[in-house]
Every structure is written in structure tokens, then in C-alpha cells.
Amino acid sequence: MSVMLKRRQFMRTAFAALPVAALPLSKLFAATDTAALADVEAVTSAGKQIILTGADVKDFAARLRGELLLRNSAGYDGARRAWNGAFDRHPALIARCSGPADVMEAVKFAAANQLLLSVRGGGHSLSGQSVCEKGLMIDLAQMNGARVDPGKHIATVEGGALLGALDREALAHGLATTAGTVSHTGVGGLTLGGGFGRLSRRFGLACDNVRAIDVVTPDGKFVTASNQQNKELFWGLRGGGGNFGVATSFDFQLHPVDPIMLGGELVYSFADAPTVLKFFFDFAAEAPDELNLDVSIVRLPNDMRLLSIELTYSGDVAKGAAVIAPLRQIRKPISDSVMPAPYVRLQAAHDADTAHGRKFYIKNGFVRQTTPALLDAMLATIADAHLPVIQAVVLPQLGGAIARVKPGATAFAQRAATFNMFVISIWDDAAHSESVGNWTRSAWPKLQPHTHGIYVNEYNDDSARLRETYGPNFERLVALKTKLDPENLFRLNANVAPRKA
Ligand SMILES: Cc1cc2nc3c(=O)[nH]c(=O)nc-3n(C[C@H](O)[C@H](O)[C@H](O)COP(=O)(O)OP(=O)(O)OC[C@H]3O[C@@H](n4cnc5c(N)ncnc54)[C@H](O)[C@@H]3O)c2cc1C
After folding, report:
1. How far is ligand 1, taken at its centre, from the CA of residue 320, in Å?
2. Dihedrals φ, ψ of 326, to 5°?
3. Whole-number Å distance between alpha carbons of 176 and 256
4. C-alpha distance from residue 73 to each of 76, 92, 142, 185 (Å)
5. Neighbours of 278 (CB within 10 A)
6. Residue 26 · residue 61 · CB < 8 Å
7. Could you tell me the distance, in angstroms and rounded to a whole number, from the CA of residue 58 to the centre of ligand 1?
8. Among 84, 119, 296, 390, which is best to mutate for testing ligand 1, by the most ligand atoms less than 8 A from CB?
9. CB atoms inside a 10 Å sphere around CB 243
10. Are 209 and 252 in contact (CB under 8 A)?
């Protein structure tokens, strides 16, 4: 028998031994296009149970270059896992898109079958909404490239890329733009909802730095949105979250930076927290744009309580040391890790403690004024925390360049905020899930009165606050949504519902 024949025979035997759905459909389709597929149970966006015929599913698979995964396909379980381990959802279908053409097919298939649809970029959704139950999940994980034009200072980043890819490619040219503070967060979700981090007080939000976005709109068409074309869509995409379609690519403005920045954490005892926090709020109000300050009051499962100030100074390192010196003198920190460090390393400092699969519950709002009453509420919240999990109140700083953009210039309206604030619990054992939920829901009402609107990227179950969040931009977003997505196909997000006809 020739080697070729032997190989063919081996391949036939190998494929025959595998159950039909154990292979990615598109691959399977290439190997044996006569294989029949079972019907697939799914739900519509209105929650109705439906059956997709095996023939329709197979036809859909054949239209994709990437894989279509069913519940028992190899790779399905890995693809459906949300970063937030508190959610365990099972999409009926996962379209692992390989490019915009696949995304167009997937959006058309969802619309034609009125399927419940979710879009997964980096998978960091705190509400777990990027993974749907029994619907179609558009998975952009394979569309994760980032490319820099060093001459034009522009980074072109695919819709499923992670922040680490953007930072790394840009820093190779001494350039950067605003990203979030954990490198395995997705560029897509972060940017569409706003996006702040170590550089946002200097360069504005991630969405303020976007120059163009390629989008597949709810009718399955591919368009580019920018200040030159599809301007209203471009406006809505910068802060309006995932309401208007699937962003397949972003062009970001980059800025020259020194790749070595002053960064790290100052940790103080809980006994010193009232003094440190009072000083901190006054200090932060006067901070230069190069300085970003995040403050957290944390209770650890061993009942230890701490106050931490995490800082990044993105200007001259020696000048930064002088600027932050007063923070080192308020009280003696119990630990001080602030030192010159590569920006990419600072950007990965929290990657391990925010690892995939842990459980997170969060409630948030924007703070405009840091008052003594807010300070008391923060301290009381953590003094009252007693669960065997991590519990924290965290305030990432805003202001600076973010505040210099007019509230109506993009959909992101919370330009007057000086801080975002969230109460967060982190745990691993599902036995604690109920008590964490109860604690968070009872703690938040003491903090919420000090906030205005929510950050849609930390959205959980706060849809009642969306009108306040978007303020004067809300009706304009509703009009755009009504025009582009009257059936609310893109609803698994901080949803701006279309007007009913
Ligand atoms: C550990 C951690 C750290 C964070 N740090 C920061 C921070 O420093 N700054 C900050 O601003 N935010 C931060 N966030 C919040 C973050 O911005 C949101 O969780 C954001 O939604 C993550 O985007 P993603 O693409 O990873 O999420 P996904 O779960 O993939 O998507 C979340 C939602 O975004 C939409 N979406 C995602 N990609 C696309 C796309 N390409 N096209 C259309 N819609 C899309 C969908 O509606 C989806 O439901 C953090 C979150 C986590 C979990």
C-alpha cells in the first residue's frame, strides 16, 4: 500500500471514530460534507425557545472561515468560559470569527433567526453578558491583532484584541495611548464604554483617542465610523458600549511616552486610613495630569484591613518623585513599592490577582465631589465587611484631560467625575456567592448617594441609572439605537432600548 493511501485510510478511520459534533463544524464540513447534523435548541432575544435545523446550522457553518462550535464541539468549553467565574453560561452556538466577513455572516444569521446574541471581545464583562445562555455568541478572540504605524502614530487594533497587545506594539515605538490597568482586559469592551487607566488624565479616555472604528451594524453591513463618515454612529460608539454593532477594528491615536514611568503602591494601615484618605482627596484634586491615583480600602479574608494608593507618574521620573513626596509623608506606609518601572510591567501588575475564573461582584457609580460624608461611608463600608472573601471600595481617579472634553462630544457624558467608585467582592468558593451578593447589595446604598450615574463597563444590574449616566446624551443615544437596531438585537450590554414603533 502506498504511503498516500495509508495516510488517507488513517484519516478516514480517525474521522469516523470521532462523534460528528466533536469537531469544529467548519473543519468537519470540509472533511465530510455529507454528515448530517442534529437540530439545535436555542432561544430568541425575546426568550422564546426555538429549534434551528441541522441543515441551517450546517449552512451557517459553511459560510464562516472560522469555526462554529456547538455544545459538544472540541474547544466549546474553553470558548464559552467568561473571565468572571460567577457566570456559567452555555451559548447554543459560538461563532469563532476570523475576520469582519465572519462577523457579518454571524450578525445576519442572528437577525434572521431573531436569536439571542452576545458579543465577546476580551471576555472581561463584569456582568458576564458577553456570554449568552442558549443564544449565539460572536467570539472575537481570534481577531486579536495590533499593528502600529510609527510614522502616523496610529495603532490599528482588532475587535477581540487584549490591552497587552496594544501596549506592547505601541511601546516598541516609544508610543502609548490610554488603556485599562489590567493587560488581559479587552480593547473592544473597554473602549466602547469609555476606558480609563494610568494615562487617561494625560491623554483622555480610550474612546477619546479613537480615530476610526470598523463596525458590523445590526443589519449585517460593514461600515467605518469616524469624524468623516457615519459621524453619528462614531459619536455613539464612544461611550455607548456594545449597543450599535460589532466593532471589528479600532484606529487609536498614539502619543510619545517614556517607557519607564514612576509607579507602584503605597499601603497604609487601616488605623491611619481616615487621616490618609482626607489628605489624599485634597492632594488628588490638585494633582497634575501626568499623575494618576487610584485609592482602595480593602478587607482581606484574614480580616486584615488596609488602605492602598496606587499611582503612576507618566512624566519625568525625578519630577514625579518630588510630586508624590507628600503622599509618603502623611503617615509611614507599611509598604512602598513605588519606583521607576517599565510601563508594560506596571500595566500587568494586577494580572495575577484578577486571574480568569475567580468570582467578582461589583456595583459602581461616578463621584463628582469627594466630601467628608463620602470618606466616612467608605470607611464604614469596609469596617462592616466580615465575609471570608476579598471586599473593597475602589476609586480610580478621573479628571484631567477626560474632563476637558465636552459632555456632548462623545456619548460618554460623565466628564465632571473626579473618580469612578466601585464596591467589589472577589471570591473562589461558590458557597459564598449568596452572602457576597447580599453584602454588596446592602453596602452599596450607603455609597450610591455620593455618586452620579454608573460606568457602563462595570455595569451589573443598574439599568435604572442609565438615563442619569448619559444625561443630556441619553435621548440622542435612544434615537441612534432606534434607527440602527430597532429590534434591539444588541441587547446584552448596558442596554439603551430602542423606542417602540
Ligand atoms: C480585571 C478588570 C480590570 C478592569 N480595568 C479597567 C480599567 O482599568 N479601566 C476601565 O475603563 N475599565 C476596566 N475594566 C472594565 C472593562 O472596561 C469592562 O469589563 C469591559 O467590558 C471589558 O471589555 P472586554 O472586551 O474584555 O469584555 P467582553 O466581556 O468581551 O465584552 C463586554 C461587553 O462589551 C461589548 N463588546 C466587547 N467587545 C466588543 C466589540 N468588539 N464590538 C462590540 N461590542 C463589544 C459587548 O457588549 C460585551 O457584552 C476592567 C474589568 C476587569 C474585569
Report:
1. 30
2. -60, -30
3. 7
4. 5, 11, 17, 26
5. 14
6. yes
7. 31
8. 119
9. 26
10. yes
- Partners of residue 98 on adjacent β-strands: none
| Cβ–ligand 1 contact at 91 (below 6 Å) | no
Model pLDDT, residue 35: 59
Distance CA 419, CA 399 (A): 7
Q: How confident is the model at residue 34, as a pLDDT?
A: 45
Contacting residues for 492 by C-beta, under 8 A, at least 6 apart: 116, 117, 118, 119, 129, 130, 132, 242
**215 CB under 6 A from ligand 1?**
no
d(CA 190, CA 420): 14
Q: Is the beta carbon of 253 within 6 A of some atom in ligand 1?
A: no
Backbone phi and psi for residue 229, each to the nearest 5 degrees, phi listed first: -140, 150
Three-class SS state of 247: strand
> Which of 192, 223, 237, 457 has the most ligand 1 atoms within 8 A of CB, as the residue to mutate?
457
Report in angstroms the alpha-carbon separations of 69 from 43, 48, 89. 16, 22, 14
Cα–Cα distances in angstroms (integers) from residue 237 to residues 54, 173, 230, in the given order? 36, 28, 11
Residue 120 CB less than 6 A away from ligand 1: yes
User: Is residue 481 exposed (0-12), middle (13-18) or buried (19+ Cβ within 10 Å)?
Assistant: buried
**Other C-beta atoms lying within 10 Å of the C-beta of residue 45:** 20
The CB of 197 under 6 Å from ligand 1? The reply is yes
Distance separating the N- and C-terminal Cα atoms of the chain: 69
pLDDT tens digit sequence for 351-392: 998 999 999 999 999 999 999 999 999 999 999 999 999 999
Tracing cell 435548541 back to the chain, one arrives at 41
Helix (H, G, I), strand (E, B) or coil at 481: helix
Q: Whose CA is nearest to atom 15 of ligand 1?
A: 457
Grid coordinates of 184: 488581559
Q: What is the pLDDT of residues 240-249, one digit of tens each?
A: 999 999 999 9
Other Cβ atoms within 10 Å of 362 Cβ, number: 20
- Hey, which of 102, 138, 185 would you mutate to test ligand 1's pocket, going by the most ligand atoms within 8 Å of its Cβ? 185
What's residue 461's pLDDT?
78
- Nine cell digits for residue 88: 456559567
Query: Is the CB of 370 inside a 6 Å radius of any atom of ligand 1?
Result: no
**Cα→Cα distances 391→79, 236, 277, 464, Å:** 29, 34, 18, 25
* Helix (H), strand (E) at residue 447: helix 433-447
Ligand 1 mean position, distance from CA 182 (Å): 11
pLDDT for res 5: 36
pLDDT of residue 36: 72
CA of 173 to the centre of ligand 1 (A): 26
Q: In the chain, which residues have pLDDT < 50?
A: 1-34
Measured distance CA(294)–CA(255) in Å, rounded: 22
CA of residue 137 to ligand 1 center, whole Å: 15
